[in-house]
Amino acid sequence: MAIPDTAALKQKYNLTYHIDYLLYGEQLIGLKGKKVLEVGGSLPEGLVIGDLQAAQWLSLEEIDYWTESLSTGHLQGTPPELQGEKKLFAQADPAQFAAHNLCFGRIEELPEALTGYFDAIFSIAAFEHIAKLPLALEKMAQALRPGGKLYALFGPLWSSYNGHHLPEIEDRAGNRWSFSNSPVPPWAHLLVRPMELFDFLCSKTDPETAREIVYFVYSSPHINRFFLDDYREIVARSSFTTLQCTPMFPVNMQPPVQERLEAMYPGRKNFDHSSLLLVLEKPVG
Description:
There is one protein chain. Helices cover 31% and strands 20% of the residues. By secondary structure, it is of the alpha/beta class. The strands form 2 sheets. A 7-stranded mixed sheet has the order 3-2-1-4-5-9-8. The two termini are 30 Å apart. The relative contact order is 0.13.
């Protein structure tokens, strides 16, 4: 595959980190000429079939996540087309696949017809949203042929400074809060109880918005709230062979914060990385 013009691809498809992470996935596991299952995303056909030259691509989206994420009234990420007929993943039939396909559902609903069907699994910014991750990993292994590889790069992790993953919310004063412009102080979602955070947020915004933020931080099912150390153990116990399990994008944190978090969450050590890179392989035989 020729070296792509990253900037041109970003402009062509109006995407940002997606292009960087896609090309990194191509570099690490190879996607060109392969049958690929994209878990938790739906990259455009022109990009993955045309520019990347994958042989076949199936994008899997979870509609409940998008329903809640978009309920704030503001665009979050890159949602799929939610209008019209929706093909269900549980009923997917490879005999009816085109080069590029979009299904709705969860990887845990993998149909028998897709056992061993894919050469590779690609996923970005999705694993932190999968509640039944141990089961999901087993289904991903089931979906791959022997020797097939999985590439996932995801975050922010619950254990990181902005792991609350707050969607964009507009308060009565017109302020827009999100995980990239958060009224929640770094690591506060781990350090204080919900009502303590509510009291703090009332100094930043109105009580109605403060209550909504507290819901998204502590109760919403749109994130799984696994710590980085939890992911490591889940992966180690899976059917995959681990090629890489690498914390990504570290941030500086003061020793007192690290010490307090370790005391509050025994057995957890890594709080300073916001993301995790996984490269896994389904064993042969």
